[in-house]
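Record type: monomer structure entry
Structure origin: computed from sequence
Chain ID: A
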Amino acid sequence: MKKVIYTSGIIILIGVLTVIIVSVKLYNKPHTDVLASKPDYEVSAKEIINDFSQNEAEANKKYLDQIVQIEGQIKDINTTDGNTVITLSSESSTKNIICTMEPSENKKTFGLATGQKITIKGICTGFLFDVIIVRAVIVN
């Protein structure tokens, strides 16, 4: 009986240690380098907005948590608390693409102007009235 309890205790201890080690490794996993990564999808602003407007569930399956490279026209540039947000527009829609830029990209945004065509690459996090892109970088 003591041998069964001892063996069970060892197995439980090994299981707990395994869960702790895996959790720590996942927690400390580095972020994806968006600038160095190849985009999963290359689309225009009009195309991605249409995809989300027509069928949000299918667009989520396609774009959610994927690196997306988007070409569009700058509608607005805002800087809040050191974070730059570029809004891209589509000619045929009232919806936009909100791109929260990486802090390292802040200097590149100084030379940009509204109405300018730009290509931005970032991670799509979904659709909340507008398409949301995070950790974005300027491609051109």
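Annotation 1: DSSP finds three helices and six strands in the chain.
Annotation 2: The longest strand covers residues 67-80.
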